[in-house]
Structures are given as C-alpha cells and as structure tokens.
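Chapter summary example: a protein plus dioxothiomolybdenum(VI) ion.
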Amino acid sequence: MEPIKESKVIGVATPRIDGPLKVSGAAMYASDHHFPGMVYAWPVCATIASGKVTGLDTAAAEKMTGVVAVYHRGNIGKLYRVPPATGFSMIIDEKRPPFEDDVIRYYGQYVAVVVAQTMEQAHAAAESVKVTYEKEKPVMGGKLLESKLTTDKPEEKSKRGDTAAALKAAKIKVDQVYTMQVETHNPIELHASVAVYDGKKYTLYETSQAVVNHRDVMAAMLGVPPEDVQVITRFLGSGFGGKLWPWPHGILAASCARNLKRPVKLVVSRQMMFQNVGHRPAIDQRIQLATDADGKLTAVQHDYVNHTSILDDHDEGCGEITPFIYSTPNLLVTGGLVRRNVGNPTAMRGPGAVPGLYALESAMNELAVQLKMDPVQLRLKNEPAMDESLGIPFSSRHMKECLTVGAEKFGWSRRTPEVGSMKRDGLTLGSGVAACSWIAARSETEATVELLQDGRARVTCGTQDIGGGTYTAIAQVVSHETGLPLKKIDVVLGDSALPPGPISGGSWVTASITPASLQAAQNAGKTLLLAAVKSDGSPFKDKKPDDLEFVDGMVRLKGQTQGAIPMEEILRIAKTNAVSGKGKSEGTLGGKPKLSFHSYGAQFAEVTWQPEIARLRVSRVVTVIDAGRMLNPPAARNQIEGAVMMGVGMALFEETMYDPRTGAPINNNLADYVVAVNADTPDIDVTFLDYPDYELNALGARGVGEIGLAGIAAAITGAVYHATGVHVRDLPVRIEDLLAPAGKSMHVA
Ligand code: MOS
C-alpha cells in the first residue's frame, strides 16, 4: 500500500469517540450486564499454598439463604484441557480447567464455587464452605539466581562473540545483580464474567484483551465448537496485560450457567485479583558490562531468572531488548525459571523489556559513574548502525535524537555529576536517564467497512479497545479514506463474532488494525464505484470505475468537484442498503524478519530528596518517544503519561508481599498495595519524534501502549543515586535503602 503522508484527520488531535459513552455511564463493561433470572457466583479460595484438599463440606453453605448450588470437582461437570499449540498462549494453569485435581499449588486457588440469588449471599455461603487440607510448606521467595531452575541450565537466548573472554580481559567492568519484587496488575475494572447459556450457545460478557482467543479457549474447555461461543467485551477498564489470557473464573461462570441454564455473574474481588489473575513475576537479573577506556562496550552479559508457578512456564523474556539496543561485539543473554507456589505470572505492561531495561539501564548508569562519563554520552557512543543480533537493518530508529532532544528539554547540560551537588529550594536534586525500546509489530487482522444508505460507515473488527483509543484510531483511518466525518462512522469492536482482530497486547493493535481498516475502506469505496457505473439511473452509468473517485463521501469523475454525488444517493440509485469491503493486514511476527522493527525512547527523571525527613519524590520526567507516526497525539500522550506514572509506582511503591508461611498475598488491597496516584505524579513532558515507519504500514504507525514505561525505573534509580549516593538495586526503592547504609555516606550537604 502507498504511504499516506497528508491527511485531514490522521495525526490530528481527536477526542475519543467513545468518551461520551464512558463519562455518561452508558458504556457497558462486563459486570454491567444484567439478565432476567441472573444468579451470582463466588469462588471458594484455598487458604493454603501447597498441599491437597482432603475434604469439602458444603452442607452448611447449601442451606444458607439464597444459595442455588455449590459446585466443586465432584459436580462441576465435564471440562477439557485446551490442546497445545493453538495460536497464542492460553494461560489457565497450563491450559487446564479449574478443579481438575485435588492438588493446591497456590494460595487462593479455586476449590469450589457457590451460586446464589445475590452476590452477598454467594459470598457469605462461599465463606461457609469448610475445606480441609493436607498442608505442605509452600516454596516462596528466596534468591532466584541461586535457586534450582526448571531446566538443567539457563537457556541461551542470544549470543555473539566470546563474552566470557571479553569480560575476563576487560579493565572496566560492571557486574551487578538487580532484583524486582512481584507487581500485581490493578486495573480499576475488576475481572468479571457474565455467562449466558441457551442450551447450545454461550454468550460470555468478559473483560478481555483478546476476545477471539478467549472464545477459542472457552470453546475448548467447554468441549463445544467455537461457533457456539461468543465473547463480548465492548469496553475495558484497562487490563495492563492481566486480561490478555483467560483465567479460571471465566470457565467457572460458564460452567455454572451451563449447569443451571441461567445467566451467571462472577466478579473477581480486589483480593482475588492479587492471587488468581496474574502478576509480573519476581525477577533477579545479573548484568555484566565491559568497556574500553573510552566507554565503548566490548561485552554485555544479561542473565535473568524469573519465578513462575508450579504448572505454568512463564518466561518473562527480560533479555528481549538487550541484544540490539547497543553495539557490542560480544554478547550473551540467558534466562531461567524457578517454580514457586504462586498463581501464574503473566504479561504486565511491557513484559520482558520493562524489567530487562530496568536492569540493563541501571548497569549502564553505574558504568557511566565508573567511567566518569556522562550517561547520555555513554549511550550515544554505543549506538549501533544495525540490529547486530539479527544482522539486519532497523526499519526506523532515532535513538540518538531521543537522547539529544530529551537532554535539551530536560536541561541536562546544567547537571553537575557529583552526588548531592544540585539543590533547589532547599531540596537535593538528582537526575537520571535511561534509553528504552519496545517491539513494533503487526499481527494478522481482518476488518470490514460498510458504506450505508443513511450516509454512515460501519467498521467492524474482532479486536477490542483497552481504553487507549482504538475505537478512535480506526474511525480516523476510515474518515481519512472515505472523507466522512467522524460522527458518521460507527466502529464496532469487542465481539468474537466479528472478523478476527489482534489482541490488545504488545502495543501492536494500532499497527495491525489501521492498515486492515484502511484497506477495507478502500475496497468498500471500490465497490461503491462499481455500483455507480453499473446502476441504471446513475449519472456515471457505463463509465469505467477507474474514471471515478470516492472523495469526501462523494462519488465523482476524477478531479472534478462538479457533478459529485453523495454516496448515499449512489446507494439509493443502486437500490442497495450497503456496500462493503474487506481488509487484511498480514502479521510480521514469526519467521525470518528482513528489518528490525522497534520503537525507541529516552527517559529523563528528576527526583527531589530531603534527607532531614527522608522524603523522596519524583519531580519531573522528560520522555522522548520514537514510535512512528502518532495518529492521535493527545491519546498517545495519555499512554505515555500513564506509563510514566506506572513507572513511578514500579520504582518507588509497587510490591506484592507474600506471607512466607501461608503463601498469602498480604497487601492484597489498594490501601496496602501502593500504586502511584495523582499526588505522586511528576511534571511529565512528552515529545514524539513522529517519524513515520512506512515499512510497518501505510500510515507509518506503530503503537505506544508500553514503551512509556520502559526505562523509567532505571532513570529514577539513576536520579536517586545522583541525589543520595546510594545505588538501589532492588525495586521498589525503600526509604530505609537511603538511610545511610553501612559504609556509605548520605551526602547530606
Ligand atoms: Mo500488554 S502486557 O502486551 O497487554
């Protein structure tokens, strides 16, 4: 497809078209759905993290007011495993349905589910189910790099040159371990399922980042063909990756509906969110860097180990960015997994890259300190000319410009590198920097555009809008192609019955859906021109379609505004209600790529430090992002701002704590699990370089859901060092880390 350079709508600030529905409360989220005769399900959660269920006494619960049924392993009915190797990963406890055996592998695992007339009745009865266990001591915590792996040795992820020899020979080296605690996704919308079963077909109202995959998993587990399952997610109250793959509550709701032949609603509580629906795993990473005297990297080694659950093999992939972000002749990345009695970890915003860059960029900052070199210069010095890991060119990479523009905007040249040397209003200032990157990709996508006699266009795609502006981006593309105003374009998403669309993951929805909807709109336009030349009574009858064009919602002779006919008039003459066109975008993932597709960025953070009261704040962040062309700049900026906030949380607050005796997450609520809120939000300056990546699609658009988080934590810990002199290598940064650790001065001026 020809690159699209000029546009009246693409790249223009566009308020979200779904905004009014959301702010007026008309947008229907999963748990907003109500049906006559609906009953409520509440799971019974294991109170041990390892062992066996030896008894389940439901008698008391069954007698309680409003209780309709109690289901467990003995009576839930037939459920099936998901066959391996079907498309994307389908994570429910290693593709198993709930209640498959009596083994307890993590705290909170579902052992039964109570259905009652009201949610409160179901909740109360669930707490009255008496479960007896044979307990074992759960395996929790511990140093991951020193724990037994699931494999004999760490897996080699990327390798070039002779890293061991280069590290040995080097005089200037950094060799540090960086650790991160578990982070839990806390989208404001809880996970929820409303399941409706009519005796044959299941209609499942879910909060899913991937409706098509969700349908396939549910169909496999229920043992019915995919056409008997329809998954609907019109809106999400975000997900951060936690809603990419189905979790056991969805299949519980569906099987309760099947058993009772009544609609069933199951809402996962905030507490359960900390145990049953994924988290970013605990991760230990060892980074070894070596340079020559001028700061040119000679070797990079990145070894990571993340925890996973007893049944699942979640590989966080922390070394994803390391092989291509810098130039180095010698490189080794390895990864390993360690089993713990925790629920399954899963993708969380920027999986792999975000934790990986925290470690790598922290080590780069430490290297700069050791070299007495400016950390921006160190990165500029190691800019590669190509993707050295794959030996292929970059599609479009402007990392250097991200760094130099960011340095300029931040005022980096005024920075004095000595620890604690900068002050403002009685506060000690610290500043830090990090580079970042995230994959750019398209996944296979189909879309349909219909042009209708009422003058409207309707676009459909089986993707969903996680909240970032997918509805709006698609409307912009169709508006661009058809010339119809946004208010005349209906975008229909969030239904597995629609043409299959991408997962709302990997930041690749925009890159995938825009070319597919553009092509669908073009094809719908072509069909309209065909109607114009073939229909009796059309002023264009017997012209060639090539003589005509569809511009600004009108059909006309090429280049002639005179005699243009509105599309609805053409459809009326043709006696048809609608013409439609299909569009398809091929995937770029898998296979042997010819180009290295990634987005880039530079993060600059400033902290203020008050040693007298041990008060640390992130005061300012400047972020420069090279992520292709921005279709809707304010929506894109929102994504980066939200990600920066999440980065503040990652650096300073977020940590899921488990009781090592029981395996229970103990800060399982929004009071004790601290996320960054408005009061923690620094001034955020977002710049997009806006270089279109026409190699990725005709619009040059990538996606911005994740890159804004990458690098933020390392920029902040770099700033913390600059202010305090303490290299914190275990996230989140705790106040006590900064209180004069043994052998270190606090640099109180
Ligand atoms: Mo994102 S963690 O790929 O939803």
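Key point: Residues 509-534 form the longest helix (26 residues).
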